Amino acid sequence: MFLSEELLTDELGLSRTPVRDALSRLEQEGLVEIKPKRGVTVSPLSINDVNMIFEVRTIYETYILRNYGPLIPEKQLARFYDIFLHQNADSEYFQNNDYFYELDSEFHLMIVHSCPNVYLHKNYALMQTQNERFRHMTGNQSNHRLEATFREHLDIILACLQKDWTTAADKMAYHLEQSKKSTFQLIFGDAAGTRSGFWGEKKRPSIQKHT
Q1: CA atoms of 203 and 171, how far apart (whole Å)
Q2: Domain count, the chain
Q3: Is the dihedral of CA 64, 169, 178, 91 positive or negative?
Q4: Does residue 200 sit in the same domain as residue 115?
């Protein structure tokens, strides 16, 4: 289904310039596709998209832990450690998906923003847009995955507090791999998850080959 620029300007009560600027930004972020003489459509989400986003996240976040870990505020690490240690995934507080996802984003952004490289920040911000899209598509996380996420975060934080940045990076890589698997299962279902070829378990299909 395609939407026209004219329809959007009429529906929103705006002039063409702000609508065109907004669509251009959404296209840059990979959220919509603009087809000449046809209109605008939401970009499809493929198995390869999910793989690529988590691949880049793993490269960035493990690199930051290994090279800029000492710049992560220790007070913030201690705060997150206390939160993840004492909260129960079955509690009503953590059944609020918005709160859980905001907390998860805050934790990962704390690590990313400890790196002073502004170009890395800009590239990571583009992926954050897709992460928000994943979250809207996946909806509720299972209690099992919530509890596993808390444990994985605790493992990362504990290694950071011990100044063991190599272990922290390894724990982060494991956490992101598990998050990727969960995303596949929630968005594409078990059948697509099998085709996704999680590294170390299944053979990767040709669509995922990179040059």
Answers
A1: 24
A2: 2
A3: negative
A4: yes
In eight-state DSSP terms, residue 210 is -
Instruction: Pull the structure tokens for residue 86.
Output: 């004492």
Question: Which has more confidence, 191 or 79?
Answer: 79
* Number of C-beta neighbours around residue 43 at 10 A: 15
Pairwise CA distance, residues 82 & 88, whole Å: 12
CATH number at 20 reads 1.10.10.10
Q: Based on the fold, state whether residues 99 and 167 are members of the same structural domain.
A: yes
Q: Tokens 């063409």 label which residue?
A: 16
Interval 129-161: pLDDT, tens = 777 776 665 555 556 678 888 899 999 999 999
Range of the domain at 25: 5-42
Residue 80 pLDDT > 80: yes
- Full-model pTM: 0.71
Helix 16-28 vs helix 5-12: crossing angle, to nearest 10? 120
| One domain, residues 111 and 162 | yes
Helix (H, G, I), strand (E, B) or coil at 64: helix
The residue count for the chain: 211
Q: Residue 114 in contact with residue 64, Cβ under 8 Å?
A: yes
